[in-house]
Write a structure and sequence with these properties.
It is found in: Cell inner membrane. It comes from Desulfovibrio gilichinskyi. Its main location: membrane. Residues 8-415 form the TRAP C4-dicarboxylate transport system permease DctM subunit domain. The chain is built from 20 helices and no strands. Helix 4 packs parallel to helix 7 (111-128), helix 7 (111-128) packs across helix 18 and helix 13 crosses helix 16. The chain is 80% helix and 0% strand. By secondary structure, the protein is mostly helical. The protein has one domain.
């Protein structure tokens, strides 16, 4: 019966069913045919109880904050400040795009929101300074990945919820990995700039003090969020709530850019995004429950033992599995499907939970831009009104850089664990 259930799940996936059904139907069939003695109310308890966790409250708050900032002035002011330092240098506008995405990610935790915000701001600038359309689109889509690594990251929050790993530790580890990825993208920008002599903008004629003053309220957001979390002043969930209040205050009272009607529209978009994620999380909780009681992690461990596979081979298998999954399904769904059976195996292999979490998160980043169904590709296409194929053609060199960084992070654990070790040795 198990092969039949797996076949049903794959058939539904290929036929284009919604992911909540691809996750849910096999879980309920597993209960019906393999564990019929489990009372039906248990499934409801797993559905509701799986998402009835205070840690997950951070997700709707950060999504709401990201929508507020993408629709307002905060993203623009942060980018203008970065542009003041980098725009007039070789490849400066490209570097501004990368660092701007990292800065926006540090207050939003959402890659699609970063694509939407930075795409509108930086695409015209990239084209004006000579970058090709394909490279510009690829850079915008790929740079947004750093939002999933630079804290606060919604992906790391979900991983921490699933595995019980310290979210603060994951955030600190994500900072190191995110900076590594950002620097790698800047290296590619520099190479392209030298090769084609493009990307150098004009030196800003606005005094630094004026630019800094204009961005000072926007800068307060990452300072409050990251400073508060790392200092232990408040939890990631509390930081998320504070970010919403702060963003509403700044956009409405300081920048005077947020009207009541716009707030309603932003709230509606954030609510839809939150609902989609939580439905997937609820279904994933049920699937994870059956993965556990079916002893799938034990089966995987026994298989790896039989073929005498060590941590190096195991992590290679993990990366391949996530890469293939990222080509066809939503990255969050890949997280919910693959982490429950693989995480216990990682522990038995002696792999640090934070290191494994950063590997998983970086794989999710790659899934966001991997053709044919990378989510950020379609967000960019919609935001910038560009053909999907043009974006896919521009993504390839950045995908190659992603894979190189993934290999580096996979087999050099210190990139993910060094900073957390300093904070909590």
């Amino acid at each position: 019966m198990t092969p039949v259930i797996i076949l049903i799940a794959l058939t539904m996936l290929v036929c284009g069913f919604e992911m909540l059904l691809v996750l849910g139907v096999p879980a309920f069939l597993t209960k019906a045919f393999l564990f019929p003695r489990i009372p039906d109310p248990v499934l409801i308890q797993k559905l509701v109880g799986g998402i009835n966790v205070s840690t997950l409250l951070a997700i709707p708050f950060f999504i709401f904050a990201a929508e507020l900032m993408a629709s307002g002035q905060i993203a623009k002011r942060l980018t203008d400040l970065i542009k003041h330092f980098t725009a007039h240098r070789l490849g400066g506008i490209g570097h501004t795009t990368v660092v701007g995405s990292m800065a926006f990610g540090s207050v939003s935790g959402s890659a699609p929101a970063t694509v939407a915000a930075m795409g509108k701001l930086m695409y015209p600038e990239l084209r004006k300074t000579g970058f090709s359309e394909k490279f510009s689109l690829g850079l915008i889509v790929s740079s947004a990945e750093t939002a999933l690594l630079i804290p606060p990251s919604i992906t790391l929050i979900i991983y921490g919820w699933m595995t019980g790993t310290s979210i603060t530790g994951l955030f600190i580890g994500g900072l190191g990995v995110g900076i590594t990825l950002g620097l790698a993208f800047c290296g590619l920008v520099l190479f392209e700039s030298i090769r084609k002599g493009v990307g150098k903008g004009e030196k800003s004629k606005i005094p630094f003090t004026k630019t800094f003053k204009a961005a000072s309220w926007a800068l307060g957001l990452p300072v409050i969020i990251l400073g508060g979390i790392y200092s232990g002043l408040f939890t990631p969930t509390e930081a998320a709530a504070i970010s919403v209040v702060y963003a509403i205050f700044v956009e409405s009272c300081i920048y005077k850019n947020l009207t009541f009607s716009r707030l309603i529209s932003i709230t509606e978009r954030a609510s839809i995004s939150t609902t989609i994620i939580f439905i997937l999380l609820a279904m994933g909780s049920v699937l994870s429950y059956f993965v556990t009681i079916a002893q799938v992690p034990v089966l995987i461990t026994n298989f790896l033992t039989d073929i005498q596979a060590g941590p190096i081979t195991f992590l290679m298998i993990v990366n391949i599995a996530f890469f293939i999954a990222g080509m066809f399904i939503d990255p969050n769904s890949a997280l919910l499907i693959l982490v429950p059976p693989l995480y216990p195996v990682a522990l038995t292999m002696g792999i640090d939970p934070i290191h494994f979490g950063e590997i998983v998160c970086l794989n999710i980043c790659i899934g966001m831009i991997t053709p044919p169904f990378g989510l950020d590709i379609f967000v960019a296409s919609s935001t910038l009104d560009k053909p999907v194929m043009s974006i896919i053609q521009g993504v390839w060199p950045f995908l190659f850089i992603n894979i190189l960084v993934l290999i580096l992070v996979t087999y050099v654990p210190g990139l993910a664990t060094f900073l957390p070790g300093l904070v909590a040795p």
